[in-house]
TrEMBL record:
Name under which the protein is recorded: Two-component response regulator
Residues annotated as domain OmpR/PhoB-type: 144-243
Domain Response regulatory span(s) in chain numbering: 13-130
Keywords: DNA-binding, Phosphoprotein, Transcription, Transcription regulation, Two-component regulatory system
Length: 245
């Protein structure tokens, strides 16, 4: 039997969207044993209504395949991001193809966990999402909220980016990565540091994850992504952000 950890002074509220009612009940129980407050729904429609009625959550645990839409998790996550809601989202799904993982991240998910999974890993990933959120809130009080990269205007507080009248859509993780670069201009950042500071992952072997996100930032922000001026590769060392290039 799992023992509860020390209760938090102010319980953190999670929204779990899962159509498997047995799994959903088990998730709710274990999150509550960890000290969280949990709201539980089973469809996109109920999730949408709950988000409107209950306000902001610390994080969403979101199944991909839901009764009202087999791609419901992707759809709901994209709607949240398009509406400017960057609540951390962890997707749960039986779909283990790389294409599905990429689709989830492109929809704006912060993390993606394949079923079946170990409970300890799920809890660790949720804690990682919340640490990342807390770090972002701390950073927002310490550094400038707006910056310009070439012709692109970025507002970290509003989570918005634009090139003239053109809106540039960035995911929550892309904003987190960009913010870390902005806080460390001109310094070479290796993949391990970026994984630890942005993704909150220690000793994670998949360095291509960082490379893929750098490619995405270049695609969004560089005048010519094939000849990067701002996000520069340092061979054998990592990446350097050059805002005044």
């Amino acid at each position: 039997m799992k023992l509860p950890s020390k209760p938090m002074a102010e319980p953190t509220r999670l929204l779990v969207v899962e159509d498997d009612r047995n799994l959903a009940t088990g998730l709710k129980l274990n999150f509550e044993l960890e000290g969280y407050t949990v709201d539980l729904v089973h469809s996109i429609r109920d999730a949408g209504a709950h988000l409107i009625e209950s306000g902001k959550y610390a994080a969403l645990i979101l199944d991909v395949m839901l009764p009202d839409n087999d791609d419901g998790g992707f759809v709901l996550c994209r709607k949240l991001r398009d509406a400017g809601d960057f609540t951390p989202v962890l997707m749960l799904t039986a779909r283990d193809r790389t294409a599905d993982r990429v689709r989830g991240l492109e929809a704006g998910a912060d993390d993606y966990l394949v079923k079946p999974f170990e409970l300890d890993e799920l809890l660790a990933r949720v804690r990682s999402l919340l640490r990342r959120r807390d770090w972002e809130q701390q950073q927002s009080g310490e550094t400038a909220q707006k910056m310009r990269i070439g012709a692109v205007e970025i507002d970290f507080a509003a989570r918005s980016a634009s090139r003239g009248d053109e809106e540039i859509k960035l995911t929550a993780l892309e904003y987190d990565l960009l913010r870390y670069f902005a806080d460390n201009p001109g310094r070479v950042l290796d993949r391990q540091e970026l994984q630890e500071k942005v993704w909150k992952l220690d000793n994670y072997p998949n360095s291509r994850m960082v490379d893929n996100f750098i490619l995405r930032l270049r695609k969004h922000l560089e005048p010519d992504p094939k000849e990067p001026r701002y996000f520069v590769s340092i061979r054998g060392a990592g990446y350097k952000f050059m805002p005044d290039a």
